[in-house]
Design a protein that fits this description.
Elements (H helix, E strand, L loop, with lengths): L16 H12 L14 H11 L11 E5 L3 H19 L4 H9 L10 E8 L16 H19 L3 E4 L5 H8 L5 E10 L9 H4 L16
Antiparallel strand pairs: 1-2, 2-4, 3-4
Helix pairs in contact: 2-5, 3-6
């Protein structure tokens, strides 16, 4: 069942140590998922996750994110074909053991995921009246990225997995989905219930690269 969003008239909540610990669990278990069960995503849960994602910050309150559900089999096939072309080209750039390892990696759940979402940035949006992006127009796309991360966390909290497929041709995906010319692809997401649960990233588990010992480098000037 869809859960009501917090009312802006209610006072600020108190986030205690127990909540902060659970929040840490949510971040740690977010994970990029490539292995999905085939059962459908509940529509009310999807709507709740999208509503929560829309609480993400955006430059000038522009809210430039545009979500497209890709349900048509032909359009999905065009996206999958783009992935296969790009994946083959990427695999060819690696040699020897690294190339063999790349070939064994599962890098997308396009065939298994019951739900595909393409997320675009609307570069022509009039919302926000241009505030905050005259000197950094890329802030529109950064705002969409923040929304995607909020959606990812909300989905994880509702038991869903999300996989971000970046091995794609943005122009080919945009053409296949027939969206407005001012929309720029930011992400193609596979969404569904995970087949397996792991706290560690798949690329760590399968030997591609370990987590950096110091994930955030704080520099001073």
């Amino acid at each position: 069942m869809s859960q009501p969003l917090p009312s802006p008239s209610v006072g600020p909540p108190v986030f205690d140590d127990a909540f902060r610990a659970r929040l840490g669990d949510l971040f740690a278990w977010r994970r990029d998922v490539r292995r999905f069960r085939g059962d459908p995503v509940d529509e009310a849960v999807l709507r709740t996750c999208l509503d929560l994602a829309a609480l993400a910050p955006s430059v000038g309150n522009s809210q430039p994110w545009r979500f497209v559900r890709v349900a048509d089999a032909g359009r999905r096939a065009a996206v999958t074909a783009s992935f296969e072309r790009c994946n083959a080209a990427a695999r060819a750039t690696y040699a020897d053991e690294r190339g063999a390892l790349y070939a064994r990696l599962k890098l997308a759940g396009l065939h298994e995921a019951p739900l595909h979402l393409a997320v675009f940035c609307d570069g022509a949006t009039e919302a926000g009246h241009g505030l905050g992006r005259a000197t950094m127009p890329e802030m529109l796309r950064y705002s969409v990225a923040a929304c995607i991360h909020a959606f990812w966390l909300a989905a994880r909290a509702h038991g869903l997995g999300v996989g971000w497929v970046s091995i794609l041709e943005p122009a080919a995906v945009t053409e296949a989905l027939d969206v407005p010319a001012a929309w720029t692809l930011v992400a193609y997401l596979c969404v569904g219930h995970p087949v397996e649960e792991h706290a560690d990233p798949e690329l760590v588990r399968h030997g591609w690269q370990d987590r950096c010992p110091e994930a955030v480098h704080l520099h001073e000037r």
